[in-house]
């Protein structure tokens, strides 16, 4: 059996059938393949004999709650992960390993105003009356 020559692509056939001077770019070809707008999901739902508003249609899309699945197995503790990483020691050793080095000291703040020069200080007190003291 002898093989035939390769045929033309759909794009090449389309280009040959376009009026002279028209845009025959690949983009124009792809744009020419626009179909009619389809029906909305809501319209298809109505066409199937359902009756209701779009809100009722949207509400109909929500299914019943499923049963809860079984719980998964507990994961490893941070301590166990620390051990699995090749560390050795007690849980306290692990906790102690979480403490970092001391940070550097902060800078000192500026000094406040001196109290020198205060001449007149007035202290006021009020008498306290005790009633029914036992």
Provide a descriptive summary of the structure in words.
The chain is mostly helical and 134 residues long. It has a domain of 27 residues. Helix content is 31%, strand content 0%. It starts with 9 loop residues before the first helix and ends in a 37-residue tail after the last helix. The model has no long low-confidence stretch (mean pLDDT 89).
Mean pLDDT: 89
**Helix share bin:** 25-40%
Shape annotation: elongated
- Profile the largest sheet: none
Fraction of residues in β-strands = under 5%
Annotation, overall tally of beta strands = 0
How far apart are the first and last residues' alpha carbons, in Å? 126 Å
Q: Low-confidence parts, pLDDT < 50 over ≥5 residues?
A: none
Give the tags:
31% helix; 134 residues; single chain; 6 helices; mainly alpha
Summarize the structure.
The chain has helices at residues 10-16, 26-31, 41-47, 54-60, 78-84, 91-97.
List the helices and strands and how they pair.
Blueprint: H1 10-16, H2 26-31, H3 41-47, H4 54-60, H5 78-84, H6 91-97
